[in-house]
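Write out the 3D structure for:
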Amino acid sequence: MAKKNKSIRIFSILILLGAIFFIFSDDIIRYFNIWNNKQSKISEKENSFNNISLNNSMNNNKQNILLVNKEYGLEKGYEPDDLEAIQVNSNKEILLRKEASENLKRMFKDAEKEGIYLLAVSGYRSYEYQEDVYTTEVFNRGEEYADKYVAKPGYSEHQTGLAVDVLAENYTDMDINFENTEECRWLHNNMYKYGFILRYIKGKEDITGYSYEPWHIRYVGIEHSNKIKEKGVCLEEYLGK
């Protein structure tokens, strides 16, 4: 008899759980869809973006631009399949995506013709590398400072292989005073011709989420860099994000 009552109780519990799931099934499914969409929102674009030439006619649509900031992230395993070592003046081996690398090379060569000697100091960073950078900054300066100046792993533009930090041969400190150099002025006035934009603009901190960085440039393709330069907007504004 006790065994029979136990079976009845178990059956009743299963019926109750089934009823609860039936009642809330739409909400449960919606939650998992939202979570899954959030995880794939950028990764889906990553896959298509890998196969897009940034200057071809198909990419006149600005929605093809890969956006990475504090809201839009990359998957941990994301790594562009066309990374190559840049062939410009740098302080170490630096990787960028092929098209960005080629245009960076053109820009550096043209700068040298005008007596401007630029120096690349950082390009592609893996998720793991950015994790080390962020953790170190938190340890040294605290989380509040780190969140203001350093991207969390998975939310760094450097992981796209399209961002590069540029200083000068005669100025290698990554600080705000770089903007006072002749090299920085040349960079800001000319990089749009080669498909690059200044990613973190002065006065746009509340939109980009980061403080002004005169050295951090991002490749978006010549079609878009010209439009962004003309409008005087940051990438988020250009994309309507």
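The domain at 54-239 is CATH 3.30.1380.10 (Muramoyl-pentapeptide Carboxypeptidase; domain 2).
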